[in-house]
Design brief:
Layout lengths: L3 H30 L3 H27 L19 H28 L3 H31 L3 H11 L7
Helix pairs in contact: 1-2, 1-3, 2-5, 3-4
Bound molecules: MU-OXO-diiron (FEO).
MU-OXO-diiron binds next to α1, α2 and α3.
Length: 165
Amino acid sequence: MISKSLQDAFNEQIGKEFYSSYLYLSMSAYCESVNLPGFAHWLKVQWKEEVSHAMKLIEYVVDRGGRVILGAIDSPPAEFKSPLEIFNEILEHEQMVTASINTLYTLAVEESDYASQVELQWFVKEQVEEEKTATEILEHLKLVGERSGALLFIDRHLRKRDTGK
Ligand code: FEO
């Protein structure tokens, strides 16, 4: 059975994953409003991915005999200046999530909870991917600058993101 302290820390992480999903969905809605359907699509796929992260954690807590307690989800920002600003925010946000996963992992190590360590290793690896993807798109957007033709090219490219499930 999972300890109370780890259960609480997992519940906190579940809240962060749901906030991430909300943030991406808000960014997607903004991109729809400024006629960037490719960015909107990419962000909506990411919204789903974040929900799946939260669900993976929920299932783990349940499997360990813990209690899932869902907290309130803060409102995400609704207005953004540009895709560049969005991906700057995404990278910062994912770096915060990485730090949070690492803190949770440290607690699992301190408590010698090996099952939690194994579960969290998936998330440690996933965060490498999350930061890498955000950085790649951010760097492309920096190269593009104010050139709207190139921005539309990226938009078309992002439209191709696989919807996953
Ligand atoms: Fe669930 Fe984007 O990390």
